[in-house]
Amino acid sequence: MKITTTGLLIIIFNISLxxxxxxxxxxxxxxxxxxxxPNPNNGDFTLELPFEDIFGEPAEFIIYDELGRKIAGGKxxxxxxxxxxxxxxxxxxxxxxxxxxxxxVITRIFSIDRL
Length: 115
Description:
single chain; mainly beta
């Protein structure tokens, strides 16, 4: 998986496969305020993050497959509201991406359709 930046976006660091700890906290679900496009896609998509105080702490993310298995995860330093994600190593299927920072969280579904 490769994550890059465009414009005022993000810097990616600490990508790890299958290893992320999840914390139990009271979360503010911002999923309805986020956008993912294009969807379905060929493995490349943009995720708009509606986080407050966008120039603060890094956000964490995990990508899950249809069965809920963790596929990849890591941290992103938020430098704007959009994140460009390239999942060129994933096969065509439906996936979930969960992104959180502090008590703010989004969960979105995306589909990879490689024609």
